[in-house]
Amino acid sequence: FRSGYRYDSRNDPFDPTRGRRFGLSMTVAGGVLGGDFSYVKPVGNGTIYYNVNRKSHLAVNVEGGLVRPYDGQPIPIFERFRIGGDRSVRGFGYGSIYPLDENDQAFFNEQGALLGGDRYLVMNLEAVYYVAGPLKFVLFFDAGNAWLEGQTFNPFKMRASAGVELRMFLPIFQAPLRFIYGINLDPKTIRGQNGVPLAGGQEKRSDFQFSIGTTF
User: Fold this and answer.
1) Where are the beta strands (DSSP E) in the chain?
2) Which residue from 30, 105, 44 is spatially nearest to 74, judged by alpha carbons?
3) Which of 27, 64, 66, 117 is the most buried (most CB within 10 A)?
4) Residue 161 or residue 175, greater confidence
5) To 10 degrees, the CA torsion angle through 68, 73, 76, 80?
6) Is 188 helix (H, G, I), strand (E, B) or coil?
């Protein structure tokens, strides 16, 4: 079962330059609803667009969530949080940010599956400059992390990236075309259960992404 609330005062749902949007959703599974797992999962977000002048605007976005099991059930692995990507923390691959210990070692369940977090937080800040026509130039800073049960939630210790983006809104798509160049501000070598680097665990310093749609 899932329910939610959303407030939206943006001037354009596809290419906003001013206004606010706030949302909260709650997912409840198990218990009297039946199913194989029992958990509650609230997720919330808030976005503010500030119009600086006719040629630029600023945007700030914060989102986060958590998942909690009950009735002695585990958290389903597919309901855990993994973040990163063009609609989360740019400069990182999709789902490539997940809980790590102090030695940059990932966590796994008894079957050897990589574990996402039971909490997450993402923050985005961008300055948008209108170049000409539908073309816009964006400077951004993104930060986010996911934490495992027992880990201390610390919003001042998150994975971070910065970069630039060329954005072009075309009415035919009803969404912007985006060319994103992001820089990982602290690349890590992620290790597995035995301390050996995971395949693909050496993070890149920078990443180029193409996307259709908004970041937030």
Assistant:
1) 2-8, 19-29, 39-53, 56-66, 68-69, 119-132, 135-147, 159-170, 175-184, 189-191, 197-202, 206-212
2) 30
3) 117
4) 161
5) 20
6) coil
